Amino acid sequence: MRGARRVVRALVVAMLAVEAAAAPLGAQGGLSTEGALFLLVPVGARTVGSGQAGVAAEMGTESLWSNPAGIARAVRPELALHYAKSVVANGSVIAFLYPAGKAGVLAVGAQLNDLGAQDNTDRLTGQVLGQILPRSVVVGLTYAATLGPRLRAGVTYKVAQMRLDCTGPCADVNTFSVSTNGVDAGAQYQADRADSMTFGLALRNMGLRLQVNDNAQSDPLPTRIHVGVQARVPAVTQALAGAELRWAAEIVSRTSFNEPSVHVGAELGLQQQLFLRAGYVSGTGDATGAAIGLGFVRGKLRIDFARVFGGFSSDAGEPPTFLTLRLGF
Questions:
Q1: Are 82 and 44 in contact (CB under 8 A)?
Q2: Between residues 223 and 216, which one has the greater pLDDT?
Q3: Is 128 exposed, middle or buried (0-12, 13-18, 19+ CB in 10 A)?
């Protein structure tokens, strides 16, 4: 049983490793030594369409997965659904953000990555008995606040779970559910009152090791450092009324500072109703390479779409696709 359990664990970890390659550093050296790799999967069509350069941006509930400080200045509650599809997995996120006035901003989010059901068959007859369900779950609680007119900070506490479930007779399937805890912390600094430039810093996925069988086999969380900048281009607004262009650049690295990944992106807004985005992520992961995105605002409803044109899924004929629906109150 123990040997079979290790085989199942290896298969699930391998699948999650491919899934985690949606984050650029997930496909670089040292991947096999880390656990809970699904924590690296990007969330949100606006973030992905802008080259995953979100550490210095304010992107509503999407900031829960890039830099919690990004929600500190939110003034309206937001309910959002984020969906992602690739050749490896389908990801679904529901998140809610609530500004509590001078007390700060609170948010909660839950993420499910479904790697696809597989048939559970009888070894002798080949009869399908049920399904094997490899999945990962992340639940996070975020608090952020402004510290003066230019500085904001935030922190997220999250529980991450990797699980293998089964339906039907499961005597020959080594199901399991393992969890760990982690913390994200971040800050943003606005360079001037005109909001022309913002700097961002975040340390993500700090926490306890993920233990599947015993302590000797536990793996550290994929801790990452994000450093970046975002700026507005005033000349675009001056030349075209109602237009606003923002660009962003970010470096993502392990704490060992080896093999950093570069993220760059831009967003052009027209009359605060139509948004055009483009970006690029260096590296060899599933959601690396060029990306484009669109955004539409109609009243309190906002719809964002993004597609990536590099990585494993694109090579397999199914480019990673992201869709976000958000409702402001």
A1: yes
A2: 223
A3: exposed
pLDDT of residue 213: 60
pLDDT tens-digit map of 282-304: 987 778 899 999 999 999 999 99
Domain hosting 36: range is 2-328
**What phi, psi does 113 have (nearest 5°)?**
-110, 115
Evaluate whether 198 touches 152 at the Cβ level (below 8 Å). no
- Total domain count, the chain: 1
Q: Which of 71, 250, 249 is nearest to 156 (CA)?
A: 71
Domain CATH for 204:
2.40.160.40
The residue type of 23 is A
Strand partners, 277: 267, 293
Structure tokens at 240: 């075209």
Amino acid at 195: D
* Token pair in block for residue 306: 């993004």
Q: How far apart are CA 270 and CA 149, in angstroms?
A: 27
Q: How would residue 108 be classed by pLDDT, with cut points 50, 70 and 90?
A: very high
What is the full DSSP assignment across 85-134? E-SS-EEEEEEEEEE-GGG-EEEEEEEEEE---EEEE-TTT--EEEEEEE
Residue 55's Cβ-count burial label (10 Å; 0-12, 13-18, 19+) is buried
Region 221-229 average pLDDT:
95
Distance CA 64, CA 138 (A): 12
